[in-house]
Specification:
heterotrimer; B: 317 residues; mainly alpha; MetI-like fold; C: 331 residues; alpha/beta; Rossmann fold; 8-stranded mixed sheet; 13 helices; protein transport (chain B); cell membrane (chain B)
């Protein structure tokens, strides 16, 4: 197994919010609680779960774009979770992010060339004379012709913009990229192009990905390991085979069962396990195991005590009282 | 590597959002009409007084209250002064007041609004409370109070200074007029700019491209100058264009009421006020300044609407 | 084949642009049988939503129907006046939109929003409409239906709001329910609930359903027949099993191949369709898919292919492609 590039320990992110017409009621959104896992060098680790489960918050907290409430993010032996913006700056080169909405991640007033060239100049990665050649190479890396450097974002399609966002992230020569729902807003045929591009780039530059998504079919396709989150907590984490072929947590099982398959005959006969009810509010998460309100096998213990996050063997982690 | 994407836009020249907006603006007939009228008025304000054959103050008591003729295009007033020259000079007054007042108001508004939006928290609440307070005071009342309370002591002070120094600067009471007009009007004109800029900054601050810039490690200064400001400026341009028109109307209104620019300096407002007294006998004395003021207002409003449609294409219609 | 409920012929829709009108829907033919569920599949901008909105004159500004007909119950919907249309909207045809948050009136109680079409179309009394509203909420599986009648939309979760939307669509026992990406904004476990609900209701009420989606996997288990749209044209129309077993149009095949499958063996790369769909107003001559098609020949770039039965047989499987027949025989 490769060594860990990032080690996340008991990471927490709580957002204070004010409710009521006059903001008189203080409350806390428990967006992420007690997440511990390693991100291994060169792997694609995916985080899946439904909206509000905290998967994007995890990505933002790891990159210190949202300062973690508690916990540690160890990179090169240092806890970057406590770094201020100035100390983060050199590290940001190594740790990059690509966002979901291709229409708003690029500054509409800057050309593609300016957008891609900006981080290169800022981090002084090459001279001004070398810059155009470098931009062209980066655009070529993401499958765009060099003349796109003069274009503005609004002239590009969603897929093309997402390629630019990737080129921009690559400009810093990063080791690690968080793909925050990076393909979710794209059409099916374009999604496949970008997934292939991500895999190509990973091979070429030895990148490590934290792939945040809700589309399990895509996750199954590109991940080495998968983490499943529910309402701010990790429910299960393991290799792709462990999680998809042998899911342990009842939530993982329900999630798998809810994913439709492109197979009409199979779909008609398939027995789905449909979860009752809705995801509770992260403002007031249930006590004990947060899934117990919807869990088909919840026990008395699940209502009162938080299940321990433990390795069931061979790196297959789960947090559930019912798993032996 | 995946196959090269097809480029639907490949052969057109690149279009920046500014150029795109300009294209939309000049296709809008009303906006072009507004723009042309504004340019004509601006030209008149800049060069008009130099081109007219008459001084706006020179009186010709033999030709009082004359109707429009080839000698006096718009006729003369009760002191035999050429109305055309006076209207041109009034245009200059209107432009000077509008530009200076708007510049002052924008400076105050943008500074307060941007800092409130960027830093948020208590700072934001205090600034916005102050803004709302200012907005809630009736405009006219504020201007009248300022003028009434400050004008006499200021004139007094100027006179003492003149007597003490004999510096001719202090004899020109017109500076007091301008100072009071500029100051009091800027004081009532800045809150809308502050609100607008604060809202812009707040909304831009939460855009993903700002987070993306932070993730690249860029400094706050770069993010402000290259990301926040260029994206916030569009609505501000629209607002300034409309604000210039509003300032001209305000100036005229105050001059009309006698709390703005004082005679003999010509202003559309005090010309209207003079003309109103005799309009039954000499309607041109009221009509000419009133029509010019109306044209200016319409011009700025067309231009502002056009700019709005051009800079915010999605919000139009 | 069962009796036809809706038959759209040669529907053309234009959008007004700076350079003049641009065609966004180009001569679409489609039909829905009584009790049938039709899936309309396509990527964003292919015209799938506009096609359905145009039937009820719900098109946004600057977009208009330029030609074609839509026969529903013996009348052409496109020629009806507003008064006649109002009787059909929400009466005989129910509509469910993508975003339940913005499609419900935020300042009106759920019960009143449900009762409105009943009072309007069925001339029910207020009390009767309220009682029926309660039944409808029960029908779409909302727990504590009676109490929820007095709730406002923001007090409900996304899944619950979509159930309310469906209840409104069903209020007047429509013959046809049009659902425009009703689960796209929802999480996958909630999506499964909604799909399950519509399947059950369809059986119980015997209505026809048109389900618009971009997700082939989702529609696989739901539709009887599928129309695949590309750039404002129907490229393939087939019963669901046939479409998945032997997709004939290169676009359909590309779409199916680009879906990562849970059960499939590991493959390093997905097969993908290069390029992007044409913008309206920049449609190529000939087949709109030709510039992206791996099989395109000269004829594809000059002549628009007609939607015709596959292999020239009298089959419900129709495809608009010059080369499909040959390719299918070779395969």
């Amino acid at each position: 197994m490769s060594p860990a590039l990032l080690r996340i320990e008991n990471l927490k992110k709580h957002f204070p919010v004010r409710l009521g017409a006059f903001g008189e009621k203080a409350a806390t959104v428990y967006a992420l609680d007690d997440a511990s896992f390693d991100i291994l060098e060169g792997e694609t680790l995916s985080l899946v779960g439904e909206s509000g489960c905290g998967k994007s918050t995890t990505g933002f907290a790891i990159l210190n774009l949202h300062r973690p409430t508690a916990g540690r993010v160890i990179y090169k032996g240092e806890n970057i979770a406590v770094f201020d913006e100035a100390r983060m700056r050199p590290i940001r080169r190594d740790l990059q992010i690509v966002f979901q909405d291709p229409y708003s991640t690029l500054n509409p007033r800057m050309t593609i060339g300016e957008a891609v060239g900006e981080p290169i100049l800022f981090h002084k990665l090459c001279s001004k004379a070398e810059l155009p050649g470098r931009i062209e190479r980066l655009l070529a890396d993401v499958g765009l012709p060099g003349r796109f450097a003069q274009r503005y974002p609004h002239e590009l399609s969603g897929g093309q913009r997402q390629r630019v966002a990737l080129a921009r992230a690559l400009a810093c020569e990063p080791k690690f990229i968080v793909c925050d729902e990076a393909i979710s807003a794209l059409d099916v045929s374009i999604q496949a192009q970008i997934i292939n591009l991500l895999l190509d780039l990973q091979e070429k530059y030895g990148l490590t990905y934290l792939f945040i998504a809700h589309d399990l079919a895509v996750v199954r396709h590109i991940s080495d390991r998968v983490g499943v989150m529910y309402l701010g907590r990790l429910a299960e984490l393991g290799t792709r085979e462990q999680v998809f072929a042998d899911p342990l947590h009842p939530y993982t099982k329900a999630l798998m069962s809810a994913v439709p398959e492109a197979d009409p005959a199979g779909e008609r006969t398939r027995q789905r396990q449909i979860l009752e009810g809705d995801v509770p509010s992260p403002l007031d998460p249930p006590s004990g195991c947060r899934f117990h309100t919807r869990c088909p096998i919840a026990m008395e213990k699940c209502r009162s005590s938080v299940p321990e996050w433990r390795d069931t063997g061979a790196g297959h982690f789960v947090a559930c009282h019912a798993v032996p | 590597m995946s196959s090269a994407p097809l480029l639907a836009v490949a052969d057109d020249p690149p279009v920046s959002l500014w150029r795109d907006a300009w294209g939309r603006l000049i296709r809008n007939r009303l906006a072009v009409a507004g723009l042309v009228m504004v340019l004509v008025l601006a030209f008149a304000a800049a060069f008009g007084p130099m081109l007219t054959p008459y001084d706006f103050l020179s009186q010709n008591l033999d030709a009082r209250n004359a109707g429009p003729s080839l000698v006096h295009l718009f006729g003369t007033d009760d002191l035999g002064r050429d109305v055309f020259s006076r209207v041109l000079y009034g245009t200059r007054t209107a432009f000077v007041v509008a530009i200076v007042v708007t510049a002052l108001a924008v400076t105050i508004g943008v500074t307060l609004g941007a800092t409130a939006g960027f830093f948020g928290g208590l700072f934001d609440r205090i600034i916005m409370w102050f803004t709302d307070m200012t907005m809630s005071v009736p405009n006219l009342l504020l201007v009248v109070v300022i003028n009434a309370s400050l004008k006499a002591p200021l004139s007094q002070w100027m006179e003492t200074q003149y007597l003490a120094t004999l510096n001719p600067f202090f004899r020109e009471t017109i500076w007091i007029d301008f100072l009071l007009v500029f100051g009091s009007m800027a004081l009532i004109a800045w809150p809308p700019y502050a609100r607008l800029v604060r809202a812009q900054v707040l909304s831009i601050r939460s855009r993903p491209y700002i987070t993306a810039a932070r993730a690249l490690g860029l400094t706050n200064r770069i993010i402000l100058t290259r990301y926040v400001v260029p994206n916030a400026i569009g609505p501000l341009i629209v607002s300034v264009s409309a604000g210039l028109g509003t300032a001209m109307v305000l100036e005229s209104a105050f001059s009309f009421l006698g709390v703005g620019v004082n005679p003999p300096t010509p202003s559309w407002g005090n010309m209207i006020s003079d003309g109103l007294r005799v309009w039954q006998h000499y309607p041109h004395l009221l009509a000419v300044p009133a029509i010019v003021l109306g044209l200016a207002t319409v011009a700025f409003s067309f231009l502002g609407d056009g700019l709005n449609d051009a800079l915010n294409p999605r919000g139009s219609k | 084949m069962s009796e036809t409920l809706l038959e759209v012929k040669d529907l053309t829709i234009e959008i007004a642009t700076r350079r003049g009108p641009a065609t966004v829907v180009d001569g679409i033919d489609l039909h829905v049988g009584k009790g049938e569920t039709l899936g309309i599949v396509g990527e964003s901008g292919c015209g799938k939503s506009l096609t359905m909105l145009s039937l009820l004159k719900l098109l946004p500004n600057k977009i208009r129907v330029a030609g074609g007909s839509a026969m529903f119950g013996g009348r052409d919907l496109l020629t009806l006046n507003n008064k006649e249309l109002r009787a059909i909207r929400g009466g005989r045809i129910g509509f469910v939109f993508q975003d339940p948050m913005t499609s419900l009136n935020p300042v009106m109680r759920i019960g009143d929003q449900l009762a409105e079409p009943l009072i309007h179309h069925r001339a029910m009394s207020k009390a009767a409409a309220r009682q029926r509203a309660g039944e409808l909420l029960k029908l779409v599986g909302i727990p504590g239906a009676e109490q929820r009648l007095d709730a406002y939309p923001h007090e409900l979760s996304g899944g619950m709001r979509q159930r309310v939307m469906i209840a409104i669509g069903l209020a007047c026992d429509p013959d046809l329910l049009i659902a425009d990406e009703p689960t796209t904004a929802l999480d996958v476990t909630i999506q499964a609930q909604i799909v399950d609900l519509v399947k059950g209701l369809r059986q119980r009420l015997g209505m026809s359903v048109v389900w618009i989606t971009h997700d082939l996997a989702l529609i696989a288990g739901l539709a009887d027949r599928i129309c695949v749209l590309y750039a404002g044209t129907v490229v393939e129309d087939a019963p669901v099993d046939q479409l998945f077993a032997e997709p004939a149009h290169p676009y359909t095949r590309g779409l199916l191949a680009s879906i990562p499958r849970m059960g499939a063996p590991d493959s390093a790369r997905l097969s993908s369709i290069g390029g992007t769909p044409p913008e309206p107003g920049r449609r190529p001559a000939g087949c709109p898919f030709a510039p992206r098609c791996p099989l395109a020949e000269d004829v594809c770039r000059t002549t628009v292919p007609a939607l015709a039965p596959l292999r020239g047989e009298a089959t419900p499987h129709r495809v608009a492609c010059h080369v499909a027949n040959r390719v299918m025989e070779a395969a």
